[in-house]
Specification:
single chain; 376 residues; alpha+beta; 7-stranded mixed β-sheet; 5-stranded antiparallel β-sheet; 8 helices; 12 strands
Length: 376
């Protein structure tokens, strides 16, 4: 081993590219092994703990194994051999990946295999459109900043990304990792680049339960308010409580403000807040209508009540019209017996029930439209 190293590194120059003809291009194979990841959502900082492997042929480090006791490979310090200058291009910094302390495995054929465990930090802009079930696409770019494509070529051979040693994160699930090759032109030179695209999906089940379930409950209560008795104050109290709950819930999720787009769940809850305000106003109007109903029923209301769709909305069977409806609407009659006044109040109560069921169907339709707009 001592004699082999003396013969190999006697006239070896670590600063010269290991090719016998300078016009030959050094092909460097790259493989990434993600180990773990972290995501700082406040500052949009993506941190990837990985293991990077580089392999190339050094034409000056070739020997015949039979001449040295059958030694076919040796373990070297990365500082004792030439290494390609590969950098990590982040959004604010350029990090030299090969300038770190690393180990290399040298084979008798001249193949050099070097590996390191760098921490790759990059800026990943959040897209919170589908929060808390959002997916993020973060990129890690490797390039040879000081050596052009005429000297070095970055290659992807076989499995460019190995996920066998990856430790899953509780907050984010790594779905796929893809790599693409492209060339970056700077000045009159072309530099090779490898871009790794990591697709992440939020896997925080607690956020989904604490956000989605209250929305479903509040929407169900808003729709249920149209089936309560309009004469009692419980309906108005329920609508006021729902309004306060909507406001508090929006304040609770208002901290999600570091994305470029507003989450659709916030937009849905904003529109639900507006619908809740209208339901409160409608509840107050219905309470006033049932307590201070006028003594005369307009003829248009009677014609509406006698129609089939009106009784379908009232969930009642068709019944005969009041015989004295025309008499009740006659402006020349200024008094009515108690039985006639009771029938008039019944008519107004039926009108209120018709409006309740009609608004219930309208709200169901609006919520379905909002679901298809924001969710589907």
């Amino acid at each position: 081993m001592k004699r082999l190293k003396e013969n190999l590194f006697r006239d070896y120059d670590t600063s010269s590219r290991p090719v016998r003809r300078w016009s030959d291009r050094t092909q460097v194979a790259v493989q990434m092994i993600p180990l773990s990841l972290d995501f700082d959502e406040i500052y949009d900082v993506f941190t990837l703990h990985s293991s990077l492997h580089f392999a190339w042929i050094d034409e000056f480090l070739v020997w015949n194994a039979s001449d040295y006791g059958g030694i076919e490979h040796i373990l070297l310090d990365g500082d004792s051999v030439w290494v390609p200058e590969v950098f990590h291009l982040s959004s604010w910094d350029i990090t030299d990946l090969m300038g770190r302390k690393r180990l290399c495995n040298l084979f008798s054929s001249g193949w050099l295999h070097c590996w390191d465990y760098p921490i790759l930090i990059a800026l990943c802009r959040l897209d919170l459109t589908h929060w808390p079930y959002d997916s993020q696409n973060c990129t890690v770019t490797l390039s040879t900043v000081t050596q052009s494509l005429e000297e070095i070529e970055l290659m992807v051979i076989g499995a460019a990304v190995n996920l066998q040693e990856y430790i899953p994160s509780r907050a984010w699930k790594l779905l796929t990792v893809t790599v693409s090759q492209y060339n970056h032109i700077f000045g009159n030179k072309v530099f090779p680049c490898l871009q790794y695209n990591l697709l992440l999906r939020r896997s925080d089940a607690i956020s989904g339960v604490t956000i989605v379930v209250p929305i479903i409950v509040l929407v169900f209560l808003v729709l249920s308010s149209f089936w309560l008795n309009s004469e009692q104050e419980v309906r108005v109290n329920l609508c006021c409580t729902l309004l306060v709950c909507h406001v508090l819930f929006l304040q609770n999720i208002g901290h999600i403000n570091n994305g470029d787009n507003a989450p659709v769940i916030v937009l849905f809850f904003r529109d639900s807040l507006v619908l809740c305000v209208f339901s409160l106003e409608f509840a107050v109007f219905m309470q006033w209508l049932n307590t201070t109903s006028p003594r005369k029923v307009p003829y248009f209301f009677n014609s509406v009540f006698d129609s089939g769709p009106a009784w379908m909305l009232l969930l009642l069977g068709r019944r005969n019209c009041l015989k004295g409806s025309e008499t009740l609407n006659d402006g020349r009659q200024e008094t009515a017996d108690p039985e006639t006044v009771s029938d008039v109040k019944t008519r107004w109560r039926d009108f209120g029930g018709l409006l309740n069921h009609l608004f219930f169907l309208v709200y169901c339709l609006i919520y379905l439209i909002l679901i298809f707009m924001y969710v589907v």
